[in-house]
TrEMBL record:
The keyword Transferase applies. Keywords: Kinase, Transferase. Signal peptide: none annotated. It comes from Filimonas lacunae. This is cAMP-binding domain of CRP or a regulatory subunit of cAMP-dependent protein kinases.
């Protein structure tokens, strides 16, 4: 199992926030490696999020839990950053649940450790800014796609960005993430021949 290093953390963040590897030294020291089994709940519905996670191996889905439904709001694969960030920031539970879709390994930093890094140095402030920017950019991009692209365009863009999605994620979860039914995704796949 790969251990967290400043270089590995930098590689994960670089596509959003390129920074000197030294910024990530104290962050990497605080990371804990945690393994989850397939279908294991990482953070339960209405539970409190205490960690920010870097996904090293496997895949994770984040769901909003309703009365009788679960709607997938994010799919994560290797080198993604995930958290129920609303719960993380507010310190309260939310109806968001995160679940390992495969055998999964994350590097997790506890909220208290992250807060300590923020107050300890300017590098910690840069880390906090990077995390907030990564999660904000991702969520805004997903919202814009949902509101401006057709279902077929959303499907094709997902395949382009995450080609492994159909091999690693059940169709009903992919459909939920796209805001569609599994039948609609099947029709799109048949129409485009993928």
């Amino acid at each position: 199992m790969r251990e967290p290093t400043p270089e590995a953390v930098k590689q994960i963040f670089d596509r959003y926030f390129p920074a000197n590897v030294r910024i990530w030294e104290s962050f990497a020291e605080k990371l804990k490696t945690i393994a989850y089994a397939r279908n294991e709940i990482i953070k339960p519905c209405n539970g409190k999020e205490n960690h920010l996670n870097l996904l090293i191996k496997g895949s994770v889905a984040l769901y909003v839990c309703g009365e009788d439904t679960e709607t997938c709001i994010h799919l994560c694969y290797e080198n993604d950053i995930f958290s129920d960030y609303l719960s993380f920031l507010r310190g309260t539970g939310t109806p968001i649940q995160s679940v390992a879709l495969e055998e999964t390994v994350v590097w997790a930093i506890h909220k208290n450790d992250l807060q300590e890094l923020y107050t300890r140095s300017t590098a910690g402030v840069h880390i906090g800014k990077a995390i907030a920017e990564v999660l904000y950019i991702r969520k805004q991009t997903e919202q814009i796609k949902l509101l401006t692209l057709s279902p077929q365009e959303r499907y094709l863009q997902l395949l382009q960005e995450k080609p492994e999605v159909l091999q690693r994620t059940p169709l009903k979860i992919v459909a939920s993430f796209l805001g569609l039914t599994a039948e609609s995704v099947s029709r799109i796949r048949k129409r485009i021949g993928k």
